[in-house]
Amino acid sequence: MIGELFINGRDAYSTWGISMDDTSLSALMTPAPNKEFIENTSRLNHGKSVITNAAKKDERNLTLQLNLTAPDKDLFFARYESFCKELDSGVLEIRTKYQPAILYRTIYLSCSQFSQFMQGIGKFVLKLNEPDPTNRKY
Predict the structure, then answer these.
(1) Under DSSP, is residue 37 helix (H, G, I), strand (E, B) or coil?
(2) pLDDT 10s digits, 21-31
(3) Cα 79 vs. chain centroid, distance in angstroms?
(4) Counting Cβ atoms within 10 Å, is residue 49 exposed (0-12), middle (13-18) or buried (19+)?
(5) 24 CB-near residues (< 8 Å, 6+ apart)
(6) What is the model's pTM?
(7) Among candidates 6, 13, 21, which has minimal Cα distance to 113?
């Protein structure tokens, strides 16, 4: 799991014991939507006119599921607190080993769910916003 996920330039597993859920990579890779096309309806013409050239990408919201693990309770709570401080920064730049040339520049919105399954395992469900999906060069 070391080297799989990087958050703000740090290895998420070695720093916080954070690894991706099986849906996280799919959430990151989901294509961003296009902005609405410019449309005009005129009573002088049938139907409507739509300008489709120069399509632009829109922002996107995504849900990222992450797992936090630790071998003991003390390290679990230390990692939890450290990761929450990272979330407080408001900016999460995410990179994976599967797409090493892509850096997802996201804004942390909220944690819609936190579950602690046992004393050494926790699950975060983060709500993120990617304001400009075309700005992913690493």
Answers:
(1) coil
(2) 989 999 999 99
(3) 20
(4) exposed
(5) 5, 64, 65, 66
(6) 0.88
(7) 21
The three-point CA angle 4-9-10 to 5° equals: 60
Residue with the two structure tokens 């096309």: 37
Which pair of structure tokens corresponds to residue 19?
């690894």
Q: Are 122 and 114 in contact (CB under 8 A)?
A: yes
Q: Residue 94 corresponds to which amino acid?
A: I
- SS3 category, 111: strand
Say how far apart CA 115 and CA 65 lie, in whole Å.
11
Question: Taking all residues of the chain, what is their mean pLDDT, rounded to a whole number?
Answer: 94
What's the token pair of residue 65?
Answer: 């599921």
Determine the Cα–Cα distance for residues 135 and 138; give it in Å rounded to an integer: 9
